[in-house]
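Researcher: Re-running this chain for the archive, since the previous output was lost when a drive failed. Same request as before.
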Amino acid sequence: MKLKTIHNLQENDTLAKPIYNDEGQILLNSGVNLTVPMISRLVHKGIQFVYVEDALTADVYVDDVLNDSVRRKSMKQIHENFSEISRQMAMGKVVEMEKMSGQFSEIVNSILDSVRNHNEAVLMLSDVISYDSYIFRHSLNVTVYALATGQALGLNAKELHELGMGAILHDVGKMSLPASVLNKKGKLTEEEFAVVKEHTEAGFDLLRKTNTIPLLAAHCAFQHHERLDGSGYPRELKDGAIHYYAKILAVADVFDAVTSDRIYRDAMLPHEGLAIIQAGSGQLYDRDIVDAFSKTVAIYPVGTTVQLSDGRTAVVIKSTKELPERPLVRVTHEQDGSKVEPYDLDMSETLNITIVTCETLTEQLSDY
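Model: Regenerated structure tokens:
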């Protein structure tokens, strides 16, 4: 299978993986031949990346960190619970978090089990999203990234569960924000951004009053926008005053935000998102956490067409935790652009070759 952007899809391309709506339900199943109206609908829904069938990579399998069952159940539960929280807040009622905390805990446990059993680098692609429910998918993705990073950092089972609860609920305070601000197209005014920043305190106040949710989860909601140099919000805390979990969430939150399609901008590629994180290492983000995250996330998604430093063109077919920047690739074109009988190249064993560009997500080869 091959990865394409929504804008590079063609009529009669065949889906290789299902596409889900924001409630975890299958929108279009694998094996469907896409029509122009279908593609238009996907564009309208904000879906950016799609896996399609491809003869040269027919044997390539994408090993998602979350299987379809866990993903659907998690998305559905997050959607239902966050919507109920929003409804209760809008009506001025006391939010009944105790009733929902057990469900959030079950989701965290399911995700943690999946992360523990996943041997490849992780990546949550934007193959499902509606613009008005970005927060649901974002909460799921940040939980996956945070738990994978926490595991790489050696956190124990109790710590991972606390981190997971903080991750899945880090943005719960946004349920108190006006939809007109939360989903605004274009740049926020200073007044609107001030309103958005209130979500950290709103989330903290909600979670700290809930006896069935770890207090540290409340601090995750409060501090995930703080930065080591004191440039964050809401309290401009510096390194030593920021909880370790919040430092992990800061990295996971920013990475997922910049690699997700939004109302006001297109998503960055994973390696571009990682470069932003690495540029802030030591100043904005904890160095050890950035290093662990860098070895955890798949910066070159399986199915991505890449240009190698010697001029050859290849498709990524596997990414490992140990060296995600040096995946296993399948060469399809030589330096002069001529097609070849595809052959595999393990970049972890060919250190003089590097990836210089990703073409699948920006410019497809017309004769691939």
